């Protein structure tokens, strides 16, 4: 390392004195004007990580669903995953080192991680459409080059596209071609193959309104549209030609406010969806004949996908690989993890097939190499219906972005399934009914006083908080409530559900008061009654089906549906995660 050059260039990307940032669940995120030094240093760090792993590392410049003025950066590890936790800590130390300490921190990291500095390094860079992104990605490039790293700047990309590029490059092209063209072709080919099999070809199944949050999703979908247009026609809204990024539109807005984005006319029963600002999340919605808005969030997306995959798996292997005496209900484990895509992703990797989604619409499906090979083999060796189902599985594997949750890929998966099953958006929505719920946030002096266990569903500290929650929950029917510190905002998240909206609202309020009293609340005491803004938070990522909690209990307790129906939906939803058992049975 040429330390002199690093010092010289670092001074051109000087850190504002005293500024402390943390590499959180989605990297660094703050106002764009505070990020120049962070970008430069993440360029340096990406080179070290690349040398250590002897692989290509990705750097994405985006602040996803945050306001246009914000920006952020995250590093992408060799198989397209989120950065390893020990390197998140290094990222935080490096970003916060004062100018004079920067060199030392860099050397410390290299030593701790036994980085061979003679090793070549390669970094790929992508950015979203924010006005600040181009300059900030140039600062990343400055960091990469000053320590002798090679790079490829992809320019404008969705976040999942960058993850895909990293994955492709580190698997010698086996996963796909590391170009946007390669991405479009891989996904579109799989989609068109799949939808060719759909018997219902009526227009109602083949057109979709897409709110692109005035972000990168619009650009990429426009480029890609003609590749898949024989299977689906998309009508784009909030395509960035006039509105502001994420302003009154996008997946996070729609999910938090439970209403359609601005600028989109919706006729009754029309299928619509929203991407977020960097196109790694998607939610669906529609208006019923009475004009009521219905949101179809990540939970229902997971339900649709897993039920479809399970049907195909059973079709291919029932009575063969999978002994017919196996009860389907036995092969359906559902797991909860802490909030954050990385936790879900790692859990899903433990299975031969793992499907994960946060309620906020971030998710995908992962397939082990063993199961992919088994499916390929079945598609070649089996006959008739079994072969057809195995072929569909082959295509659906190609259609998923296994490196990261991807709004474009998920949209095509969902559209293919709806077309193949001949399902309307209402039929999909009716797979199960959510219990009424409420999400709130509470301001406290230090949110770290709240620690949790059991996938963030139980508070361990401060003393007495969990007991207080337990007592409150007992007052309501079909109720439960959780609290946890946010990973992206300086607040505590509160989630409550119960048999009626009124009860859910009351419970959420009472739990907020308990947090305020026992965890050092600051500012105004939580008031009863909820304005949309109060229930809105950056990611809306708490509660069932989000990062930490899938909807199983909520569904089981929903009195509005027969138990048989509920458990059937539940089994279908989780079938996928169970596939490891199929392998074990074999
Ligand atoms: C980040 C995470 C998301 C999580 C959310 C929780 C990624 C790419 N994103 O946006 O998975 O749901 O944080 O935020 O990991 P919260 O802790 O503020 O609710
Ligand atoms: Mg995003």
From TrEMBL:
<keyword id="KW-0597">Phosphoprotein</keyword>
<dbReference type="GO" id="GO:0007283">
    <property type="term" value="P:spermatogenesis"/>
</dbReference>
<dbReference type="GO" id="GO:0005975">
    <property type="term" value="P:carbohydrate metabolic process"/>
</dbReference>
<comment type="function">
    <text>Catalyzes the conversion of GlcNAc-6-P into GlcNAc-1-P during the synthesis of uridine diphosphate/UDP-GlcNAc, a sugar nucleotide critical to multiple glycosylation pathways including protein N- and O-glycosylation.</text>
</comment>
<keyword id="KW-0413">Isomerase</keyword>
<feature type="binding site">
    <location>
        <position position="493"/>
    </location>
    <ligand>
        <name>substrate</name>
    </ligand>
</feature>
<dbReference type="InterPro" id="IPR016055">
    <property type="entry name" value="A-D-PHexomutase_a/b/a-I/II/III"/>
</dbReference>
<dbReference type="Pfam" id="PF00408">
    <property type="entry name" value="PGM_PMM_IV"/>
</dbReference>
<keyword id="KW-0175">Coiled coil</keyword>
<dbReference type="InterPro" id="IPR036900">
    <property type="entry name" value="A-D-PHexomutase_C_sf"/>
</dbReference>
<feature type="domain" description="Phosphoacetylglucosamine mutase AMG1">
    <location>
        <begin position="178"/>
        <end position="283"/>
    </location>
</feature>
<dbReference type="GO" id="GO:0071555">
    <property type="term" value="P:cell wall organization"/>
</dbReference>
<protein>
    <recommendedName>
        <fullName>Phosphoacetylglucosamine mutase</fullName>
        <ecNumber>5.4.2.3</ecNumber>
    </recommendedName>
</protein>
<feature type="domain" description="Alpha-D-phosphohexomutase alpha/beta/alpha">
    <location>
        <begin position="118"/>
        <end position="167"/>
    </location>
</feature>
<keyword id="KW-0119">Carbohydrate metabolism</keyword>
<feature type="active site" description="Phosphoserine intermediate">
    <location>
        <position position="64"/>
    </location>
</feature>
<feature type="binding site" description="via phosphate group">
    <location>
        <position position="64"/>
    </location>
    <ligand>
        <name>Mg(2+)</name>
    </ligand>
</feature>
<keyword id="KW-0961">Cell wall biogenesis/degradation</keyword>
<dbReference type="GO" id="GO:0030097">
    <property type="term" value="P:hemopoiesis"/>
</dbReference>
<feature type="binding site">
    <location>
        <begin position="358"/>
        <end position="360"/>
    </location>
    <ligand>
        <name>substrate</name>
    </ligand>
</feature>
<dbReference type="GO" id="GO:0006487">
    <property type="term" value="P:protein N-linked glycosylation"/>
</dbReference>
<dbReference type="Pfam" id="PF02878">
    <property type="entry name" value="PGM_PMM_I"/>
</dbReference>
<dbReference type="InterPro" id="IPR005843">
    <property type="entry name" value="A-D-PHexomutase_C"/>
</dbReference>
<feature type="binding site">
    <location>
        <begin position="484"/>
        <end position="488"/>
    </location>
    <ligand>
        <name>substrate</name>
    </ligand>
</feature>
<dbReference type="InterPro" id="IPR016657">
    <property type="entry name" value="PAGM"/>
</dbReference>
<feature type="binding site">
    <location>
        <position position="278"/>
    </location>
    <ligand>
        <name>Mg(2+)</name>
    </ligand>
</feature>
<feature type="binding site">
    <location>
        <position position="276"/>
    </location>
    <ligand>
        <name>Mg(2+)</name>
    </ligand>
</feature>
<dbReference type="Pfam" id="PF21405">
    <property type="entry name" value="AMG1_II"/>
</dbReference>
<feature type="domain" description="Alpha-D-phosphohexomutase C-terminal">
    <location>
        <begin position="464"/>
        <end position="512"/>
    </location>
</feature>
<dbReference type="GO" id="GO:0000287">
    <property type="term" value="F:magnesium ion binding"/>
</dbReference>
<comment type="function">
    <text>Catalyzes the conversion of GlcNAc-6-P into GlcNAc-1-P during the synthesis of uridine diphosphate/UDP-GlcNAc, which is a biosynthetic precursor of chitin and also supplies the amino sugars for N-linked oligosaccharides of glycoproteins.</text>
</comment>
<feature type="domain" description="Alpha-D-phosphohexomutase alpha/beta/alpha">
    <location>
        <begin position="51"/>
        <end position="97"/>
    </location>
</feature>
<feature type="coiled-coil region">
    <location>
        <begin position="375"/>
        <end position="402"/>
    </location>
</feature>
<feature type="domain" description="Phosphoacetylglucosamine mutase AMG1">
    <location>
        <begin position="332"/>
        <end position="422"/>
    </location>
</feature>
<dbReference type="GO" id="GO:0006493">
    <property type="term" value="P:protein O-linked glycosylation"/>
</dbReference>
<dbReference type="InterPro" id="IPR049023">
    <property type="entry name" value="AMG1_II"/>
</dbReference>
<dbReference type="GO" id="GO:0004610">
    <property type="term" value="F:phosphoacetylglucosamine mutase activity"/>
</dbReference>
<comment type="similarity">
    <text>Belongs to the phosphohexose mutase family.</text>
</comment>
<keyword id="KW-0460">Magnesium</keyword>
<keyword id="KW-0479">Metal-binding</keyword>
<comment type="pathway">
    <text>Nucleotide-sugar biosynthesis; UDP-N-acetyl-alpha-D-glucosamine biosynthesis; N-acetyl-alpha-D-glucosamine 1-phosphate from alpha-D-glucosamine 6-phosphate (route I): step 2/2.</text>
</comment>
<dbReference type="GO" id="GO:0006048">
    <property type="term" value="P:UDP-N-acetylglucosamine biosynthetic process"/>
</dbReference>
């Amino acid at each position: 390392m040429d330390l002199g050059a690093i010092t010289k260039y670092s001074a051109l990307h000087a850190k504002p004195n005293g500024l402390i940032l943390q590499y959180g669940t989605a990297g660094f995120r703050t106002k764009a004007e505070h990020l120049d030094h962070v970008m430069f240093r993440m360029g340096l760090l990406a080179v070290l990580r690349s040398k250590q792993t002897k692989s290509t590392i990705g750097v994405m410049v985006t602040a996803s669903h945050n306001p246009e003025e914000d920006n952020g950066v995250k590093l992408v590890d060799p198989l397209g995953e989120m950065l390893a936790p020990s390197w998140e800590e290094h990222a935080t130390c490096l970003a916060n080192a004062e100018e004079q300490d920067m060199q030392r921190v860099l050397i410390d990291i290299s030593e701790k991680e036994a980085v061979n500095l003679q090793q070549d390094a390669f970094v790929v860079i992508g950015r979203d459409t924010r006005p600040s992104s181009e300059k900030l990605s140039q600062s990343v490039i400055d960091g990469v080059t000053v320590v002798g790293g090679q790079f490829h700047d992809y320019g404008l990309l969705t976040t999942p596209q960058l993850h895909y590029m990293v994955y492709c490059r580190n698997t010698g092209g086996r996963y796909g071609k590391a170009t946007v063209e390669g991405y479009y072709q891989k996904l579109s080919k799989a989609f068109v193959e799949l939808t060719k099999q759909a018997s219902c070809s009526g227009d109602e199944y083949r057109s979709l309104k897409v709110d692109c949050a005035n972000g990168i999703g619009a650009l990429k979908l426009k480029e890609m549209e003609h590749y898949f247009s024989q299977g689906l026609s998309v009508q784009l809204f909030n395509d960035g030609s006039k509105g502001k990024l994420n302003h009154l539109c996008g997946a996070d807005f729609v999910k938090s406010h439970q209403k359609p984005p601005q600028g989109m006319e919706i006729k009754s029963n029309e299928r619509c969806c929203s991407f977020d600002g960097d196109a790694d999340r998607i939610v669906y919605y529609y208006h019923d004949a009475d004009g009521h808005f219905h949101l179809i969030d990540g939970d229902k997306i997971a339900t649709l996908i897993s039920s479809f995959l399970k049907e195909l798996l059973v079709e291919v292997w029932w009575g063969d690989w999978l002994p017919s005496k196996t009860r389907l209900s036995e092969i359906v484990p559902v797991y909860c993890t802490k909030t954050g895509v990385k936790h879900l992703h790692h859990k899903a990797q433990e299975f031969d097939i793992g499907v994960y989604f946060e309620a906020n619409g971030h998710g995908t499906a992962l397939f082990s190499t063993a199961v992919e090979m088994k499916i390929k083999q079945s598609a070649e060796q089996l006959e008739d219906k079994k072969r057809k189902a195995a072929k569909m599985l082959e295509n659906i594997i190609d259609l998923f972005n296994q490196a990261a949750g991807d709004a474009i890929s998920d949209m095509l998966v969902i559209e293919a399934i709806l077309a193949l099953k001949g399902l309307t958006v209402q039929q999909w929505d009716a797979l199960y009914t959510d219990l009424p719920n409420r999400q709130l946030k509470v301001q406290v002096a230090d949110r770290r006083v709240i620690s949790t266990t059991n996938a963030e569903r139980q508070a361990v500290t401060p003393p007495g908080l969990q007991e207080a929650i337990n007592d409150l929950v007992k007052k309501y029917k079909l109720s439960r409530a959780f609290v946890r510190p946010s990973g992206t905002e300086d607040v505590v998240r509160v989630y409550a559900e119960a048999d009626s909206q009124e009860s859910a609202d009351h419970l959420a309020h009472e739990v907020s008061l308990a947090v305020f009293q026992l965890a050092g609340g600051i500012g105004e005491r939580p008031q009863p009654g909820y304005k949309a803004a109060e229930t809105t938070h950056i990611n809306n990522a708490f509660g069932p089906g989000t990062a930490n909690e899938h909807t199983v209990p909520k569904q089981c307790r929903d009195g509005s549906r027969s138990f048989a129906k509920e458990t059937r939906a539940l089994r279908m939803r989780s079938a996928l995660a169970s596939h490891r058992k199929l392998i074990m049975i074999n």
